[in-house]
Amino acid sequence: MTQVVIHDTDHDTHHDHGPEQGRGFFGFAKRWLFTTNHKDIGTLYLWTAMLMFFVGGGMALIIRAELFQPGHTLVDPNFFNQMTTLHGLIMLFGVVMPAFTGMANWQIPMMIGAPDMALPRLNNWSFWILPFAFALLASTMFHNGGGPNFGWTMYAPLSTTYAPPSTDFMIFAVHMMGLSSIMGSINIIATILNMRAPGMTLMKMPMFVWTWLITAFLLIAIMPVLAGAVTMMLADRHFGTSFFSAAGGGDPVLFQHVFWFFGHPEVYVLILPAFGVISEVIPTFCRKPLFGYHFMVYATVSIALLSFIVWAHHMFTTGMPLGGELFFMYATMLIAVPTGIKVFNWVSTMFKGAMTFETPMLFAVAFVFLFTIGGFTGLMLALVPADYQYQDTYFVVGHFHYVLVPGAIFSLLAAAYYWLPKWTGHMYSEKLGKWHFWLSVISVNILFFPMHFLGLAGMPRRIPDYALQFTNFNQIVTIGAFIFGFSQLIFLYNVIRTARGHGPKVSGQVWEGARGLEWTLSSPPPYHSFTVPPEIH
C-alpha cells in the first residue's frame, strides 16, 4: 500500500457543489439519469449489483429446492435448466462485474488524487445500458418456449440447433453487457494513466488500482472474443452458416475453444479486483504496509498474461491431442505460482501485525482460507487423468463456487464494510456485521464443501434429478444454501440503515491503520474529490 504525505490540499475548505437536485420525481430521475459524477455512478452500479444478487440468488434457491429430494418435485426439468443458465449469467455479468466496477468508480479517483473519472459522460452511458441488458435477459423467461436452457457456457449445438427462440434476446443482452464492460475499462485505463496526482508513480499506486488497471486491459482483450462467439451463434441460428454444425462442415468444439478463450481470462477479471480489495483491507487491520508490494504487482501481471494460455483445461475430454493436453495441464499448474505468491504475501503481512478483527478483516481472512481451498481443487482439475473423472461432475461446481463465493463475493462484502463508513459518513453496526459474517462463513461451507463429495461419487452437474444414494449430501447442500441466502438479508439491512444515517459519525480517517489518499478526505467525501491535486512526496 502506498504511503503518502499530503501537501497543500484545500479539499475540505472549497465550496462543495453537490448534485443539481430538482424537485419531485422528475428532479430525482434527472439527477440519477444524467449524472456524470463518479460517486453517483458507482452507487448506481452497486445498487444494481445488489438487486441482481437477490434475483440470481433466488434462482439458485429454486435450483437447490428442486434438488432437495430425488424426483421431479417442484419445477419442470426445462425450467430447471433455464434457472441454471440465468443464475450463471446473472451472477457473473450482473453481480460480480458491476459490483467491482462500482467499487472502481467510487475508489479509483479518490485513491489516485483525481477529481473524477477521465470520461464522465461515457461513464454514465456504460452504466445506463446495463439495466436494459438485464431486463432483456430476464424477459427471455416469458417467451414462448421459455428462456435459454443450455447452461451459462452456451455450448453449441444446444445453443444453436436446439435452442428456444428467446436465445436471440440473450445474445443481444450479452452484446450490451460486453459493450458496457469495454467502455468502462477504457475509462478506467484513461483515468489511471492520465489523472494520477503529481508524485504518484505507477509503483506508488494502491494495489486495488493496480489490479483494476490490469483487469481493464483483460476486459478489452476478451470481451470482443465473447462478442464473436455469440455472433457466430446468431449466424448459425438465422443466416445459414455452420460454424458449429458438423453437418455443414463446422465443429461444435470450435465454439468451446472460442468461448473458453474468453471464459478463462474472465474468471481472473472476477478475481483480480478481489485480490486488490484484500490487499487494501489486510494491511489496514494489521497496521503495517503490504508485504512484498512489487511482487504483488508482478504476480498480478503474471496471472493476467498466463490466463490467456490455459483455456483448454476446460476441454480435456473433447479428444485433444496428447501434446495439447500436456501443454494446458502444465500451463494451468503454472498459474498457481503467482497466486501462491499473493497468498504468501497476505499471510506475511498478517505475521506479527497488530491485528484487530473488525468485519472487513474477518471477511478478508475467510477469503484467504477459503479461496485457497478453491485453488487446491483447481489444481486437482488441472491434472488430465483426474479431470477425466471430475469433468462435468459436482466436483467442478464445488471448485468453481469456492473460487467465486468465498472468493469474489466475500471480497465484495469485505470492501463494502471497509468503505461504507467512508461513503456514508456513518459506521455500520459491527454486531450485525459479525452476525452476517459468521452465518455466511459457516453456511457457505455447508453449501459448497459437500459438492466435492457428490462429484467424487459421480453425480453429474446440471441435472434436475439424481440417483437415491446422493440424497443426503444434496439435502445438506440445500440447507446450507438457504441459510446463506437469508443471511445476506442482514447485510442488506445493515447497508440501508447505515446509508440512511444510523450509526455513529466517522472521521475522514475511518480505520486506525488505513493509509492512502482516500482517507485524507472527509467522510462522506466531497462531491468532487480533489479539486486541487494533492502532492505526494
Give an overview in words.
GO terms for molecular function: cytochrome-c oxidase activity; heme binding; metal ion binding; oxidoreductase activity. The protein has 537 residues and is mostly helical. It has one domain: Cytochrome C Oxidase, Chain A, CATH 1.20.210.10. Helix content is 65%, strand content 0%. It has 15 helices and no strands.
Helix content: 55-70%
Q: What is the radius of gyration?
A: 23 Å
Calculate the mean pLDDT score and round it.
Answer: 95
Separation of termini? 15 Å
Taken together, the total number of domains comes to 1
User: Biggest sheet: strands, sense, closure?
Assistant: none
* CATH architectural type: Up-down Bundle
Order of helices and strands: HHHHHHHHHHHHHHH
Low-confidence stretches: 6-15
Subcellular location: Cell membrane; Membrane
Keywords: Cell membrane, Copper, Electron transport, Heme, Iron, Membrane, Metal-binding, Oxidoreductase, Plasmid, Respiratory chain, Translocase, Transmembrane, Transmembrane helix, Transport
Pathway: Energy metabolism; oxidative phosphorylation
Membrane topology: Multi-pass membrane protein
In terms of topology, how is this protein built?
Blueprint: H1 24-33, H2 38-66, H3 77-112, H4 120-139, H5 167-194, H6 207-238, H7 252-286, H8 293-306, H9 322-334, H10 336-350, H11 359-382, H12 384-390, H13 394-424, H14 430-456, H15 471-499
